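Need NUDIX domain-containing protein's 3D structure for a figure. Predict it.
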Amino acid sequence: MTHPFDDTTRRNIAERCAAFARLPASEPAALLKRAAVAVALVEAGDGTNGTTLLLTLRAAGLRAHRGQWALPGGRCDEGETPVAAALRELHEELGVELGPDDVLGMLDEYPTRSGYLITPVVLWAAKSAGISPNPDEVASVHRIALDDIERPDAFDFVAIPESTRRVIRFRHAGHFIHAPTAALIYQLREVLAGRDTRVAELEQPVFAWK
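Structure prediction for NUDIX domain-containing protein:
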């Protein structure tokens, strides 16, 4: 196992995040709204003691992006920082209550076709045993092993006629997970490997443009 859920792994990931040359935060373009997601790292919970990240399938009753794969997150409230928004959304969606001391770092901002500028916040959720999904927002919650996102065949890139940019896809349990979620997970993988790989130009599928 490459990433056991222990203090050594926590320190290693925090050091990788600190060493990551994150692009400077910017004010959103006029049509973009600021948002944040929680890249919450938790114990596998299956007896393997591995480190996993929490991924959700959005509830079918939501107004936007219903039934899509997503990291816990949402729009920043007025005057709210991305870190505060990620912590709040993680608690609202999954009942996991963390604080600023649990933040390991942040990844690059990602502009979405649907009008958001997303800030990914990497969190160490040592108190994740009480995960309780909010059924109004979350259809199901899944734990993705860090070892799995590092597989050589975990991601692929395809062309679409609607864009000159490559669409990134992450393979998980027989499903394709697309950007923005796939792009953010891909950058986490690159950070863990010590690489400053940019993902803002990786494309989303057309169904996620609205």
